[in-house]
């Protein structure tokens, strides 16, 4: 059996090229030659470890079972012969993440009062590379900024003397009761911030009576995350990227569906990964020879850059269509959401195609820059097809930083609100950090509910808000004066 | 008699736990065990002085009679035996307010030209803790900033050649004539800024022909404030928080009413205290062991924070309802105002429930952040129920910094304008400072009246203003396009 | 004859109190006791020179003939006996303006490209006190800033290919042809910036084919300014403040009218002088004992401050009314303008009262702060009473900094545009500086005309502008939704 | 033959005045006396080299053939006698551009991720003088800033799940297919940034499947640029300034037309050159005696300044009219565009006069400041005369910095988009730099297309955008409330 074969460091070192590429991971030696080009994280990063030990870099972002689940059995070459390992060879195990600060620079969790404090703490604690990957957005970050600012431009019109002794923040979604309508947005590679990654996030959410959305590109598999808590019937959501290799997606959806996810949310706002310049700049600045080489090459060819984000997305199928919803339904019994709706027109389409819900998102400003802010899309849906809010679940993310933002989205018809970066920043403190984040948001939500004068979220309604500053920015559908005027002219000459 | 019993320092020191909690205050020893948990300022601050002398901290915020009026007679344990007091023990009397500057850093009063100068002076002169408590607002301080900025976005359209020799700023409210329609907002604990606290404020207001609103949480009791001037018939207003312990409120209202207040203003915009992060951060940063301990505890439990503000409000009844106006009327003959109206709908309700007036306020941006600015609520009332302005007195606070702001509010239908922080900052200079503040505002108001072309406030009208920049932001009642569209959907799945 | 009497320094020094107040000015000794309280520049500044020589301070702001023209003959006490003057006594002649920089710090005139360069140069070259007086505006300077910014928010919509070889900037106003429709706003005390003051301004304007508006409070009298050029028929405008002492005004108007001014412009936007805090702060900071004393006094009394501006305006009659236009017409044949119109309503009134023109102005933001910007008032007049633009001359000042601003005002219907501060800053360079300023503005105007596609100012029209950003801010007269809703309510209780 | 005559340095040095002005250029001696006053770059710069060698300054901005093509044969005096050239004389050859940095301070091209990076690199690498000339705009640069910002205020409303595997950015213009609808704006003197100047720009554009617009004031002639690539049929556009000397223009248009340009674009937005203060300030600051002299002279006369830009434009005919389109058509068969359209009215006129296209431009904010931003003019055309977009080619420049900006312009009806400064900054890296720029823009455009959900540019339409923030700023033609109200009044008095 290959599984038992002992392989020496000398032997491993010979397979160090793209056409013959071995690496050892946690004691097992794999032949990655055929896998490397389709590595979600990119070929180049694997090339750096050709003929070497990749354990440290692997463990920084992946759970232990990922290699054996993802690689074909014929790729297994044997076990690393520990007797041939020298200290010098060991010392070459390099991290892919250079740290810029030591963990103790982070403030105590007790000093963290809000999501902004979590952000400041993460910027201190994370490596520059991880910070660029997690905090960055597309191009000039205009949508990222507008996501936040547009919430701030909605005023409350509180009602007084209604008796608000014990505000009830609970909600019922997809037949499940949650203590607060707050989930983590699906975000890749939580291990970058903490070894427990998504496991910690799920444990904390469960302990607070809510849940998370497990990401297709999580550090841990859906099954691993599910098993982080004892109650295997507790609702957990799953986010899916449809792979260019549709067979791979079919297998994945069936595997996940066997574990009864509360819903599957198909991401549709990232047919190609956006241009994350902070991320790309880090790669260029880092001085890694292999990557610098790539960047120089790209001068003459592809200008899409080589950042972590761009590599991560290379397997996503840009050819996904509405008709594929039918195909997905043949693969699973789970309710299906479309994640990334950005117009009333597409909200209507999701309803027509029998989706259980939509998820309004511009991918945290990481897809196309200057995409309209999420809350503006929610207002657009209200103005053009309010029936959508009645007939489907509506999730929304992008710019939520306060409990009062959550209340605003709920008042405008959302079922639940998701946060991406704040959860990644909080998980730097592990499960306790994520719990603290949820506690903060729930407390801020309760306070806001009492102060605007409602006792439960079912009493939330648009009249509690003054959205007058944003109303003129709302796209008003087919009455838009430019909607029909222009057809692309052909050259006349 | 317990009152005469001598108690040694040694004896006092034994009662130093939460379950057996004694402290000496100005020579008298009290058993605070049963009182401490309901201390408006919070339990933790009392715990710091268990078994010790609390005089210095007590006197920093409370008038001398408060203890004997608030504590039951059985709590009186005796008199501190001065012969047992050592210098070392005395030196342990700590201030709860660490000073960051010496008093002489403050500019001379003659250098203070406007309310902003008072603010700058206060920031220099106050302890960090008091500054955070008084200057801070909720969350991101967006409402606090908008309160000020929205006044600045209203233009005057002055009228010329109308003859304005001697502008008359006087007004008649509730049957009383005041020299200017300017009162202090009810604000807690003026002693934090000056030993004379509210006494100085009332004396100065009286000397200028106007008055103040005595706060439920003032450093001095209503009776003490009333007695600060000789004329016991001079109008003084009273602001009331309704206590969770309604019996306590009944007693309080009856006691105050016996002193014939010009009106009682029930605060309704603070069913729970807002999240004042500057205030909470000071607590966390201060390094006080007891408080740090609390903060750490709160990681696992309550995220509402432990600031001075949050503690202060813990006795307020969140279950107050419109029907309670009737109950209050049975307790007093004084006219009743509802303080904290933030929508036209509630202005109408106050009228229906027979209130004498409303007080438009978002608690200086200290309740729910992003509550709409006060002047926008006044415009909303104009647009939706102008009859309210005709049939009730309308006070307004929030963002008034100039005499021209006062004139704008009056032009839009307010009866009187209140200022909170500026009075607290001015009282740092004692009675003379508050007098100087009122003089400045009156002079600015007179100058503005002459320059826009009116001789008395009865000539003020909206046509003197150009509110075009704010008009689109005004909520237009039931014609609001979103008002009826959304009902909270139940889960469909 | 008193005129010939020799008075020794010793004798002069004895009359050094408010009740017996002598001073020598350029060799003549005057008894100022009865005059000092009505000194337009304030009593306190004269008190500083009681019993002393005031020549230096006098010459800094006044032309040589002012004393003999303003003071009654009985005030003349004699000639200073030069033989009694000692060096020590001479050395006490103090300047009222402390200089903060030497003249050579100013850039060469050839380096001055625009009005902003003039402003920067003036800030360097002027004393702090003069800078505060000339550059400052009221309260928070919001109108001052908006005056400039609102011009910037108007876009041009240039027309191309119309043939614009030699743009003609000339205009015909009141029967006089001017090379450019640009005058200096009437501004006090140009001598503060340059010894030639208004004389230099008038000479430069004349040499460029335009004129100035001589200010009631100029350093030189109307006659002196008129005589600065040879052509005594050249048009010169005169600005008038109506004095509380109406007889004084009657004499003044008749004296000026004898010299055939092209028009008399009555200032009506300053019934009281605004609060110029920069100006007041300088007084307080300067450390002058006499003034400091005044400031301290003012703590207990008047909060109107003691700045140069406030003192200067104390003689202005706040009781001026529209009916006084008739009175003025009995005193002069000159066309009468009302300067300081700030609403369409008052533009209509000026027409009804037979004025030859109006002058839109908010006194450079120096009267009531948050008065609407001047260009907005012009738009208001267009929207509500465009006939005014047809039937009267319309001048406008406030915020004009570029030739393109001039063109915008002309497009919107103004006859001429005035600039205040830029002329004061330019006159620091004397006649050559003011000439340079007019050259710059004329060149910028010509360039703008060619680039928007007009050959003469008679072709200017509103369609060359895109005012869409400002249009919503324009007050729309009686259709304003708040115009009739609110009457001041009387107390109901 | 004069061409062969040897001329000594001593002889050359004698002709050193404006009335007898010789200079040597690359070994040839020319008599420039009659040419110098009409030098497009101004007389003064030539005067600096009177009687000297001008090769270095000439080569910095001009291609080698320009002198012999532009100067009459009688101006040729002979060849410089190299044997008389001394080292000392040689060392006097001065650059007209002082460098502030060495070339190696520029980042590697591989580090350039977007147009802003190119800008930052150029600011480092260019001389202050060239930077001021290329980056500067008119007066306060308000239009320059608004050009960029108005694109940022348009949001995308992406459509999802439409299948976008391989976006096609190609377009067909004037019968030619281009890989991307992106051209360089015509900009003067690219040699200032790189010796290959426009040659490099054209080679790079051709290699990427697109083209450039050769500028009338390019460093190289149209023929030289055309010859930079082998394919003489490849489409190249030509931009024309009509010369005050119409005969010169006739010759030029005929010469260019003989080379079959794809179109001739007549610039009409610069009847006079705008006031570029950064440019003028450099001249003043540089300390060049000749130029300082000019500036001082200008104090007394022309205030138009002496910057590179102002000089460059002095030959442009300000008297160009719409009727001249007919004249141009008699000179050429090439399609004619009008470059500089800034209103719907002029777009209509271009159609009426039979133009093949219009080019919306405000000259990069370098003509009249506060001209409306280009994208606003495109919206104005849509709102008032959408037929123009159907019947003519529409180019647009001004503010395009991202591929997403390109897509926005195309969605709103543009045929192609031009960029000026970014190409000049990129050409500092030569052909490779310009290629990199086009690659970046094409990649950003592809990414944006996929993310908003279109497969080819023919699918672009206004409904993909939310222009609600800009819509209120669009001029609405004859319905504009001010369009007819004001006529210039004549003086009434």
From TrEMBL, chains A, B, C, D:
Going by the UniProt record, its keywords in alphabetical order are: Flavoprotein, FMN, Heme, Iron, Metal-binding, Mitochondrion, Oxidoreductase
Question: Pfam families, alphabetically?
Answer: Cyt-b5 (PF00173), FMN_dh (PF01070)
Q: How does it assemble?
A: Homotetramer.
Q: Which family does it belong to?
A: In the N-terminal section; belongs to the cytochrome b5 family.
So which domain of life are we looking at?
Eukaryota
Question: What is one term from the GO cellular component aspect held by the record?
Answer: mitochondrial intermembrane space
User: Transmembrane segments in this chain: where?
Assistant: none
Domain annotation Cytochrome b5 heme-binding: ranges = 4-81
Q: Which reaction does it catalyse?
A: (S)-lactate + 2 Fe(III)-[cytochrome c] = 2 Fe(II)-[cytochrome c] + pyruvate + 2 H(+)
Q: Where is the protein found, in the record's own terms?
A: Mitochondrion intermembrane space
Question: Which PANTHER family has this protein been placed in?
Answer: CYTOCHROME B2, MITOCHONDRIAL-RELATED, S -2-HYDROXY-ACID OXIDASE-RELATED
In terms of InterPro entries, this protein maps to:
Aldolase_TIM (IPR013785), Cyt_B5-like_heme/steroid-bd (IPR001199), Cyt_B5-like_heme/steroid_sf (IPR036400), FMN-dep_DH (IPR000262), FMN_HAD (IPR037396), L-MDH/L-LDH_FMN-bd (IPR037458)
CDD domains assigned to the protein according to its UniProt record, in alphabetical order: FCB2_FMN
Q: What is its EC number?
A: 1.1.2.3
Instruction: List the molecular function annotations (GO) for this entry.
Output: L-lactate dehydrogenase (cytochrome) activity; metal ion binding
Record-given protein name: L-lactate dehydrogenase (cytochrome)
Any idea where the FMN hydroxy acid dehydrogenase domain is? Answer: 107-470
Which cofactors? FMN; heme b
